User: Fold these one by one.
Assistant:
Number 1:
Amino acid sequence: MANSKFEYVRSFEQPDLILPNTWIVVRIDGRGFTKLTTKHGFTKPNDKRALDLMNAAAEAVMKELPDLVIAYGNSDEFSFAFHKNCTLFERRASKLMTTIVSTFTSYYTFLWSQYLPDKPLTPPLPSFDGRATSYPSDENLRDYFSWRQTDCHINNLYNTTFWALVQQGGMKNTAAEQELKGTVSSDKNEILFSRFGINYNNEPDMFKKGSVLYRDYTPSPPRPPPSPPRKTAPTELAHPIPRRNTRPSSQPLEPSPHFFKDWTESD
Ligand code: ATP
Ligand code: ATP
Ligand code: MG
Ligand code: MG
Ligand code: MG
Ligand code: MG
């Protein structure tokens, strides 16, 4: 029905192209997972099988979308980064974001019974929200992931202490909450160690730091050495192009492998 009299309604659609040459990060987060994890009796504070399920769904997303270079997840969230030079869907934010959300949700649901065979999935089914953000510099992208990882650390230290007070200390939820009000990290570490003999440092890395998936890439081969200067100007050019314009436009910056590794080491 091309060019029908109804076609004008297309002009109501707003453009949402993401700025070229910027990293695009799509973050998804489980909707109402506090309820969902209670309903299905997830082990608190961390059900490892449920985290493995999140990672498996994220891996499937990365396999289906080759433009993704790195993904980071913890709890019920995952962040996916598209390469700066990605041109998928003309970089339309809503298409990139909704495709990630629905692909992730499909796999999360599909793989559920494999990871949680003793917990039949019934409505309300898991769902995820999503947002797309663009980051201009490598430093911004790195800081983004550091931000999410710090969030993971803060939440996990809180949850680990909270559930120790409830499960091992026999406290009511509200009492444990009250006990933790106004405490800083060192207080929580102290509670865990002195009252429950838990050294927080020995908790699994996946719980403390989250999970990273990244695509192996081959760095571009080194450029050949420049050819020797010509003795005569090329005659075919009536107006020789100024030298700065004859160079290839700057290549998109390839992150070094260290870019992907370093930030996971920082706390
Ligand atoms: P919203 O819809 O606003 O995101 P939410 O209930 O999902 O609400 P979040 O801040 O996203 O709120 O918190 C996620 C919840 O899911 C937390 O309570 C967290 O402890 C729980 N959760 C996520 N993954 C696991 C897991 N693997 N094991 C146990 N609990 C988990
Ligand atoms: P894109 O990812 O760009 O949307 P697409 O292949 O999904 O690519 P669409 O324009 O959305 O392209 O077209 C949907 C396709 O699915 C068409 O080929 C259509 O005939 C087919 N299709 C959708 N629903 C049915 C159905 N119920 N029975 C048979 N074919 C269907
Ligand atoms: Mg949320
Ligand atoms: Mg959530
Ligand atoms: Mg969350
Ligand atoms: Mg279609």
Note: Strands lie at 23-30, 68-74, 77-82, 128-135, 211-214.
Number 2:
Amino acid sequence: SNIVISGTGLFIPPHVITNEELVAAFNQYVDNFNEKNAAAIEAGEVEALTHSSPEFIEKASGIKARYVMYKDGLVNPDIMHPVFPMTQEGSTPEMVTMGVAAARKAMEQAGKTADDIDMVIVSSTFRQRDYPGMSVEIQRELGINGFAYDMGIACSSATFGLINAYTALKAGTAKCVLFVNPEFTTPGLNFKDRDSHFIFGDVATAAILEPEETAKPEHAFRILNTKQFTQYSDNIRTDQSYADYCFDNVPEDRYAFKQRGRKVFKELLPLVTNFLEQQLSETHQDAAALKRMWLHQANVNMNMFAVKKLLGRLPEALEAPVVLDEFANTASSGSVIAFHRYQDDFQSGDRGIICSFGAGYSIGSLLVEKV
Ligand code: CO8
């Protein structure tokens, strides 16, 4: 039988940081650093830091602001990281709270209760704790029977998670899957690094997937085709590991997101356009006949290039909607946020593509059709 996405949910964190606020804190940090190290800089022993700028950020990426779980430390030049209580026995990790909030909304939209669901997939870039699984705690919080597991593949965690839900339903492993995608990215970013301090925000998305027969048609999208691709690259990486305590001299920014942004742009773009061209040709689908492309939200210029290659012209605003201006890059959630936000104008039979691309490299895509 056909498998559908019957509802989606979005959890928006409580705080906004605009580029202006973020850059003000960063530039103050830079001034403080340069002042404190003036003698060493003068002597050529330490390199002076350089200001960031809101104009650069918006022009290079399309990002105007981001939502965050914890704001105070991020806009304090003496702190420059999110400040929050350490997760320990008896406390609930942010990823669980965020995931549960998004899950409840997806369940409501799909008209499902905990009793209807028998499988939970939590797919995200980070795990706040390696075990017990975030997914199992979310399962417990929501009172769901059956089983749950965590998975992730950075930027494509969401699409790969949705595809895992789809294949489990196709195989009969589950009757109704709750997919949860909490991206608590801000602790994984070095807010003192000019090249990347602006890139990410926090968010959570969720979705219900089930056979078409059991689904309410109202918000349902039939999954017509799925496609996945990976090719190793360390142009986007973090080195943080559970084994870090074994080493002396662990670098201060070992945990942090690092990328060669230009290289990523140049290498990933042709991989993505070839991938999508292949998927469209394999499914005898004309790009121009798609009503929408809900694309990964890392860089607005990259998305425009990709769509231009596929359509032979620049997209109209609603052909490839942008949420990056408001949310920044949310690791894997961008394409799902776009899908959640921009689908109400779909008529039965209208088609679109949900596609992620990024670290790994990894690319994941679902061709869907409004029921
Ligand atoms: N303010 C002012 N100027 C700046 C700044 C800044 N903040 N940063 C850099 N500059 C300057 C540089 O110094 C450089 O100056 P010069 O030309 O004099 O050397 C100039 O601006 C241009 O710098 P870049 O070449 O670095 O700038 P780009 O135009 O390439 O833009 C981007 C940088 C925005 C990073 C761009 O390369 C990009 O977006 N590339 C695509 C990257 C991409 O898609 N990455 C995937 C992201 S990974 C993902 O989505 C999830 C991964 C896992 C999540 C982890 C969560 C924490």
Note: The mean pLDDT is 97.
